[in-house]
Amino acid sequence: MEEILEEQIPKCPNCATEINGNPEFCVQCGFPVNGTEREQSKFYAEQAMTRSKVKEAPKQIRQARNTLFIVGALQLAFGLVLYFMNDDVAELLAGGIIFLIFLGLGFWSQSKPQVAILLGLLVYLSLIILSAIIDPSTLARGVIVKVVIIIFLGKGLNSARELKKQQQ
Questions:
Q1: What angle separates helix 37-86 from helix 113-134, to the nearest 10 degrees?
Q2: Rounded distance between C-alpha atoms, residue 86 and residue 35, angstroms
Q3: Rounded CA gap, 107 and 69, in Å?
Q4: Is the dihedral of CA 143, 117, 72, 136 positive or negative?
């Protein structure tokens, strides 16, 4: 019985890809094969952080989507209130159009979250700027709500970006 002794081909400790030669990093996963223990620990920590971000991403994207729906509903509600207070159809029409924009972005965020949330954030910021140009006192009104909306949309946008990066 003849036993064949094969050379042990080194493998990456992280992804088990065969390592040819003496590379500094694994070509498959980027693990610092010949790095110090500190560099390897840093790699594992970064991987854990990325996994955590990817795990949280759907929740934050869902929160951003809900924020788009809420902003749209608030715009419609304010349009209705201003219509009944001032008997101005333009206020109602503007509120309705903005509502439809945010409603569409909310539904679109189910298939293209990064683009839809980015556009929602840009539209929202544009509305704030336009409102401030028309009446500067509106900038200070509801500042906490505005900041919360921007934070939710920003977190959702960041999560959508991370999720897309991981899927590529």
A1: 50
A2: 70
A3: 9
A4: positive
Assess contact for 117 and 157: CB atoms under 8 A: yes
Spatial CA neighbour of 110 closest among 72, 70, 62: 62
| Burial environment of residue 111 by CB neighbours within 10 A (0 to 12, 13 to 18, 19 or more) | exposed
Identity of the residue numbered 4? I
Cβ–Cβ < 8 Å for 33, 19? yes
Q: How far apart are CA 18 and CA 14, in angstroms?
A: 11
Q: What distance in Å separates the CA atoms of residue 47 and residue 41, rounded to the nearest whole number?
A: 10
How remote is the C-alpha of 14 from its chain's centroid? 28
The residue behind tokens 């980027």 is 30
Question: Does pTM top 0.85 for this prediction?
Answer: no
| Number of residues that make up the chain | 168
Cα separation, 1 vs 16, in Å, equals 31
Q: What angle is formed at CA 105 by the lines to CA 51 and CA 136, rounded to 5 degrees? A: 105
Residue whose token pair is 């008997």:
87
How many angstroms separate the CA atoms of 42 and 82, rounded?
56
Q: What is the mean pLDDT of residues 116-134?
A: 96
Q: Give the residue, 8 or 93, on which the prediction is more confident.
A: 93
Beta-ladder partners of 11: 18
